[in-house]
Amino acid sequence: MKVSRIITFLVIILSSAIIVACSSNNENSNNKDSSQQSKTSSLKDLSKKLEGDNSFEKNFLFFNEEDESKNITLNFNGNYTENPITGISLYQDGKLVTDQVQLTDNSIHDNGVFNFQLKEYIPSFNEIKLKTNNEEVLLKTGEYSFEKIAISDTISEDKRWFVSDYNTGEKKNEFMFNGSFTRETVSDSSIEIVYPKSGQKNLDLEFTDSIKEIEDGKTLKFELNSTSSKEISHESSYEIYIVQKADNGSQFLMNSIIAVVSPD
After folding, report:
1. Could you give the angle at the alpha carbon of 123 between the alpha carbons of 46 and 125, nearest 5°?
2. Which of 17, 46, 107, 254 fits a disulfide with 81 by CB distance 3.0 to 4.6 angstroms?
3. Gap between the Cα atoms of 124 and 147, Å rounded
4. What is the DSSP string of the chain?
5. What confidence tens digit (pLDDT) does each residue in 1-44 have?
């Protein structure tokens, strides 16, 4: 009986030792895996994947000097959510252009979306430096060029055309916009389509539009088609402003649209 108890006691000790050893090995393995995961998910290691072929893309936008800032949406080829992005600055071919920017997002999310506010006019940028608590990485964004424009919303609010609904369509080198606008008070005004001159030159843009005001004078149907005859190998985009202008010189930005041109 005594021998049996001793053997049982030894078995318990050995089993406990094996469990402790396995736990230790598992912990070391988990730590190793965690370290590897942290390494592979660093912003620097993901930079090439995030950039993709962004460097070949061209984007032609406005910078409205009457606004305090310009919202910019970048599109990368993947997400980065590991460490919060705490600061950014914009570069052109490795040279600092501006750090007058304000974060909107602190991560790259929703299949590569990253938003921020540009606080001053700059001619262009093609790189962005993202800063976290652990690192700073310069990423290629594609070319973003800006054209100065000054549109102040000075038409009285009751006479402004506000968008009520719209839809857009894209196919290769063609962009389509159909929208309805409404206003409270009837007044004399005209509609002007504005687009960056650099975009028209680089993408060979042509526009056709149809504007139909309903009899009551408070509803507007608007159709816009733009086409690019330029042969491109990578995606490009350009901004379109729809501007209401009154006879007394006042104006109102009815809508801002980003049109995309895709390669054949």
Report:
1. 5
2. 107
3. 9
4. -HHHHHHHHHHHHHHHHHHHHHHHHHHHHHHHHHHHHHHHTSHHHHHHHHHTTGGG-EEEEEEETTSS-EEEEEE-SS-B-SS---EEEEEETTEEEE--EEES-SSBBTTTEEEEEE-S--SEEEEEEEE-SS-EEEEEEEEEEEEEE---B-S-GGGS-EEEEEEEEEETTEEEEEEEEE-SS---EEEEEE--HHHHHHHTEEEEEEEEE-TTSSEEEEEEEEEE----SS-EEEEEEEEEEETTS-EEEEEEEEEEE---
5. 444 444 444 344 445 444 444 444 555 545 544 444 444 469 99
Determine the Cα–Cα distance for residues 247 and 87; give it in Å rounded to an integer: 45
